[in-house]
């Protein structure tokens, strides 16, 4: 497997995408997780579970602090992806969904997180191609990732 660290990768066509299969791209820059950003995420989603938004109560928990929502980690995927790979040469690209999403470890407030992506496959679908990639979100100083997901994107080549 070849790692690609010159970012962002800029495929110009489907053949360029196919050449990325099996390659790991990244990592992104580090992103600091703040209580303010987690609180804002809680407000948007309506998920105000205390382990995310109540530092005093969370301090008494086995984790000792508030932690980001698992979906907060996953929601960083699109922005992280844009910094890893550019689809500017394509007519359009769409997020088609996720499969096999897991949150193996917590993401404490004050941590830093980043992502790598591995292109798993490029499959031809009506109107374009589907890109399947494994996104791995790692917390600085932790051996276990905080999130791992297979993302699906649909792309249409420019004419």
UniProtKB/TrEMBL annotation:
Instruction: Write down the Gene3D superfamilies for this protein, in alphabetical order.
Output: Hotdog Thioesterase
Residue ranges of coiled coil: none
Question: Which interval of the chain is the signal sequence?
Answer: none
InterPro entries in UniProt = HotDog_dom_sf, MaoC-like_dom, NodN-like
Every copy of the MaoC-like domain together lies at 19-122
Hey, which family's this protein in? Belongs to the enoyl-CoA hydratase/isomerase family.
- Protein name as catalogued: Acyl dehydratase
Organism expressing this protein natively: Aeromicrobium choanae
């Amino acid at each position: 497997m070849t790692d690609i660290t010159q970012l962002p990768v800029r495929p110009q066509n489907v053949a360029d995408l196919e050449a990325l299969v099996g390659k790991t791209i990244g990592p992104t820059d580090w992103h600091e997780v703040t209580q303010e950003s987690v609180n804002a995420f809680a407000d948007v989603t309506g998920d105000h579970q205390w382990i995310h938004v109540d530092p005093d109560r969370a301090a008494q928990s086995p984790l000792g602090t508030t932690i980001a929502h698992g979906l907060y980690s996953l929601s960083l995927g699109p922005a992280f992806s844009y910094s890893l790979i550019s689809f500017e040469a394509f007519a359009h690209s769409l997020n088609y969904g996720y499969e096999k999403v897991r949150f193996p470890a917590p993401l404490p407030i004050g941590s830093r997180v980043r992502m790598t992506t591995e292109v798993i496959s490029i499959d031809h679908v009506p109107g374009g191609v589907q890109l399947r990639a494994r996104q791995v979100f790692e917390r600085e100083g932790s051996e276990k990732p905080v999130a791992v997901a297979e993302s699906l994107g649909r792309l249409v080549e420019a004419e």
